[in-house]
Amino acid sequence: MTNKRLERAADKVEIMDLSSNYMRGLDRLDGELERSVFWDDAYLDYGIYEGGPDGFIDYCQSSLKTHASNHHFIGQINIDLEGEEAYGEVYYQAFHRIKNEQGEDRDLFISGRYVDRYERRNGVWKIAYRSELVDWVRDEAAADAWFAGSQMIAGARKPADPLYDREVMKRTNNS
Known about the structure:
This protein is α+β, with helices and mostly antiparallel strands. The protein has 4 helices and 6 strands.
């Protein structure tokens, strides 16, 4: 494999990590991590929000903290590299555990794509433009009563999520 091909592969992995960190920031309510993927002068167009990253992160973090949980899942990612710029399409599905006006738990599923423009500045890739396109939405009664009372380990928000406890992850059968 040539050095140029390796560089292009490394660029794509770095760009894909931006979407992974963005989603983790949403799910774990980690605004710092979510904010880290955008350039300061980035423009975001979500229909419900248009503007810079700081206002958007505040909007997301305050909206999501009212949810019991969230789970964002990334599908295929297509990236076209053009020198110090790249263009991407990122498929996603988002689960939100919410309450309706009557106080009933609901499962809200949103599926769509992010249409992105990335820029590499001083050797670092970040998002310069992001637009969210919604392809479908599904809202239904909460459907995981079987989970209540189980011995399964539940995910949580930062810092309570096991992801943030590296000491636990160092356990072995001998410790």
